[in-house]
TrEMBL record:
Basic and acidic residues bias locations: 288-299
Molecular-function GO term, any one: DNA-binding transcription factor activity, RNA polymerase II-specific
PROSITE patterns xref list: CUT, HOMEOBOX_1, HOMEOBOX_2
Homeobox domain sequence ranges: 177-237
Domain of life: Eukaryota
Protein name, per record: One cut domain family member
Species this chain originates from: Cyprinodon variegatus
Amino acid sequence: SGSDESVNGLAGDPLASQSSSLKPQSEDPSGGESQPGTPLPLPGHSSLSIQEMVAMSPELDTYAITKKVKEVLTDNNLGQRLFGETILGLTQGSVSDLLARPKPWHKLSLKGREPFVRMQLWLQDPHSVEKLMDMKRLEKKAYMKRRLSSLSDGHSVDGVLSGPDYMQGSQSPGGQQQLKKPRVVLGPEEKEALKKAYQQKPYPSPKTIEELASQLNLKTSTVINWFHNYRSRIRRELFIEEIQAAGGMGPGSEGGSPSLRGSKSGEGDSCDGTESEGTVDTRQGLGMEDHRGACKDQGMEVESEAGGSNNSPSQLDCTTSGLAGPGSSCGQTGLGIFSLTEASSTSSASSTNIPASGSARNPRDNNLRKKKAANLNNIIHRLEKAASKEDPSEWEF
DNA sequence: TGCAAGTCAATACC
DNA sequence: GGTATTGACTTGCA
């Protein structure tokens, strides 16, 4: 966007050009506002593409990074939208999701790691906040300018329809009327029914999906999507729990886990194996309770990898105590992200002023839990192995 | 073909 | 007005 250039005056980020090929970057109708898909150039890394950097990046502590980013954004009164569109090339909702529920590094695909590398680089840039502030000012200026001109023209300020515009159609750049599909909003009863169905069968057959759809008067695609999304979101909740259980830090240390904080809607939506009774998700680890709640009730914690690959609460020395902070001395070298992990060997929740949660404070409890987790994972591993052999006689126990 | 992962974008919520 | 939630979609993989 124009504002990007005016602030940076730099050659484009390799990713920016890539992103722009993914998203149409036609003339900027927003009057200079940044758009998702056009992140700022990476400071001091112009010779490397972001993909290369992601590939070369050591393990990053996604929780520490998101924590720090949230902190910086809040402290400087910068919004997720601006940050997402400018720095990450993502929309506000995606940023919110990423910041609230970061997946551990080892669970992320290369693409999923990209925003975290960007965040880390942004944190390492001593002028990061400054640049974003400039961007904010420019946006405001552009907005005021549009407002003035539109007022004089007698048009709506934003040039958009007020209220939901779906079904009313919106004007595409080409001048074609495009009907937007109305967003399906599932009612509490429908959600409840779907959750019950999920508890019985996390992977329903096409026939079951059909039945559910007709019973609930929904499209089959809606039911399919719901199951996909639900599985995916439950899995993510589990990742968070995993981290909490393993290291006593992460979002939970701030009460951030959606499963632990009260559901806003009061529907218990966000993590719903809480209601599950013996739900079996055959893909997530045969026989493992589909939700942590049940495991916890039995005094158990679930970790997905033997030994609880407790890698996330690492790398904090810099990210949370100065490295990542704008203007900090940490990571000033071109690839500061590499120094991050190297500095992490001694890091822990205690070194970061992040209170450890629950029994993780007690080393003995922690050890016990890890042993249990390792044992559990061993069992899961064997079950998975067994499951891959159709003939029960080949099962190894 | 079905799934996971990642993301968008509408809308709910604060 | 900013943030959180969530249905839908795209992509890549097996």
